[in-house]
Amino acid sequence: MSDLFWLTDAQIERLKPFFPLSHGVPRVDDKRVL
């Protein structure tokens, strides 16, 4: 799993609209999942 990388907060904010919603509630673990 050496291809994992961390997104900056700015990138997270930019990508948030594309993150899938879980039961209509924004997921809080996307940063950890990525």
- Please trace the helix and strand order, writing H or E for each element: HEEH
Percent in helix: 25-40%
Rounded to the nearest angstrom, the distance between the terminal CA atoms is 12 Å
The number of helical runs is 2
Q: Could you name the ranges where pLDDT drops below 50 across 5 or more consecutive residues?
A: none
Major sheet: arrangement of strands: 1-2
Structural class: alpha+beta
Q: What's the gyration radius in Å?
A: 11 Å
User: Quick check: average pLDDT?
Assistant: 67
Overall shape: globular
Strand content: 5-15%
Q: Using DSSP, what is the number of strands? A: 2
Largest sheet: 2 strands, antiparallel
The domain tally reads: 1
Jot down its keywords.
single chain, 34 residues, alpha+beta, two-stranded antiparallel ribbon, 2 helices, globular
Quick synopsis:
This protein has 34 residues and is an alpha+beta fold.
Description:
This protein has 34 residues and is α+β, with helices and mostly antiparallel strands. It has one domain. Helices cover 32% and strands 12% of the residues. It has helices spanning 9-15, 30-33; strands spanning 21-22, 25-26. Strands 1-2 form a two-stranded antiparallel sheet. It is globular and about 25 Å long. It starts with 8 loop residues before the first helix and ends with a helix.
Topology:
Elements: H1 9-15, E1 21-22, E2 25-26, H2 30-33
Antiparallel strand pairs: 1-2
